[in-house]
Amino acid sequence: MRGHPWVTLITVAVGVMMVALDGTIVAIANPAIQKDLHASFADVQWITNGYFLALAVSLITAGKLGDRFGHRQTFLIGVTGFAAASGAIGLSSTIAMVVVFRVLQGLFGALLMPAALGLLRATFPAEKLNMAIGIWGMVIGASTAGGPILGGVLVEHVNWQSVFFINVPVGALALVLGLLILLDHRAENAPRSFDIPGIALLSGAMFCLVWALIKAPAWGWGDGKTWAFLAGSVLGFVLFSVWETKVKEPLIPLGLFRSVPLSAGVVLMVLMAIAFLGGLFFVTFYLQNVHGLSPISAGLHLLPLTGMMIVGSPLAGALITKAGPRIPLAGGMAVTALAMFGMSTLDTGTGSATMSVWFALLGLGLAPVMVGATEVIVGNAPMELSGVAGGLQQAAMQIGGSLGTAVLGGVMASKVDHALPGNWKDAGLPPLTPAQADQASEAVQVGVAPVPKGVPAEVAAKITSVAHDTFISGMSLASLVAAGVAVVAVLVALLTKRGVNAEAGAGVGHI
């Protein structure tokens, strides 16, 4: 039993299921967290951004740690740390504590994911690896699809803390199975050093970028602090690039990017994640705060999206095998652009059937991009760098998700700040003081109507109408920006092609 390929697959799938569940579960829980902990709009963004950033920064480094010290040990540490951080979030009493432990979740999740894939590649014979990865992908897809519903049940019938507590027994099960079943596997040519300056430069550059994007609505896009952080980000990326050409074992070998298809694949993943994860950020607030749906109903409304990703992924895989990645990837991003445009037409009176059509189209458009990224990025990398390329693909998606939440969050905040005063005045509501206006704007950015206690029902109805209409205008603009990003991604997809190492590297990057 110990070291058996299929039991190994079950073991690592249990571990990574936590990471897959966490994205969609937390999206459903965000409104409840925001209300319970009195968090600001930017605070709620950091619940997502902190997790994505930690994952993005750490994935490639974590892959090298697995190569150096063994994938079994790295996986077990990742599972244990992820479960412990989840429990700590459930015990948190402030939004700052939630964000800190979300960052820790991301760091341990980064340890877990490449190690799990490394264990599969080392355990399965070549002729069965693709089958294992296919089953693996279905487990992750099912976890993603089940996240909104499970999250809705937990938030509605228990509390938002239970969304995180559920990871503790799952992590304990994965740890026990891992200790009993997993065998240690180490790369023959394991790295003997770590690019600490490279890690620090890349982390600092990405932090400065996302921090500037999140704070810009409050500071102002022309403010010196905003530009200082943006300049710091550019400087960090430049210094990182220079350093990587000089260090013996770089964090990311820049020679990888000499391949145009590989570079296009990485850019495509970033753009896809900006459009998808950035757009999805507002949908949970729209469903719960504007339409007044319960968390479980909101989760059920999102099921067409994740369900179509499960259905579309094997179909996309078969199509890419026959026709190559270029046309399916370009077509997928075109459908994604159409779906985001459709989501820009949602309003306070949109019915469930119409929402489902756009959500399902979004899932169908994303499926080819998720599947095709393996062939494009890993298949165009030299075989000896296939693991780094797999980590790069995952990191690109995490960075894109973080940037998407920040960029589209900035678009939403700017639109609300601009439109709310006029809409408020046009409705004949009493004028707000600057402090009241700021509080009202923050509430409206998440779809909440800032109705003071004790106001007459007629005034409360007017405030609610203004708040929801203003939120809808912001979400509509953010969705149009996401659609524009997806259109650019269509053009980038046309630069991709099947890689010479695609078959040998087929297992990398699906997670």
Describe this structure as you would to a colleague:
By secondary structure, the chain is mainly α. Helix content is 78%, strand content 0%. It has 16 helices and no strands. Helix 2 runs antiparallel to helix 8 and helix 2 packs antiparallel against helix 14. The protein is globular, with a radius of gyration of 22 Å. The C terminus is likely disordered.
The mean pLDDT is 83
Low-confidence stretches: 501-511
Question: How would a crystallographer describe the biggest sheet?
Answer: none
Decide which structural class fits the backbone: mainly alpha
Radius of gyration: 22 Å
| Strand count | 0
Question: Strand fraction band?
Answer: under 5%
Along the chain, the helix and strand elements come as HHHHHHHHHHHHHHHH
**Shape designation:** globular
Instruction: Work out the helix count.
Output: 16
End-to-end Cα distance, whole Å, is: 25 Å
Give the helix level as a range of percent.
over 70%
Secondary structure elements and pairings:
Blueprint: H1 5-36, H2 41-69, H3 71-90, H4 95-123, H5 126-157, H6 161-165, H7 167-181, H8 196-219, H9 224-244, H10 260-290, H11 295-323, H12 326-343, H13 352-378, H14 386-426, H15 434-444, H16 457-493
Helix pairs in contact: 1-2, 1-3, 1-4, 1-5, 1-7, 1-10, 2-3, 2-4, 2-8, 2-14, 3-4, 3-7, 5-11, 8-9, 8-14, 10-12, 10-13, 10-14, 10-16, 11-13, 12-13, 12-16, 13-14, 14-15, 14-16
Please summarize what this structure is.
This protein is mainly alpha-helical and 511 residues long.
Q: Main attributes?
A:
mainly alpha, 511 residues, disordered C terminus
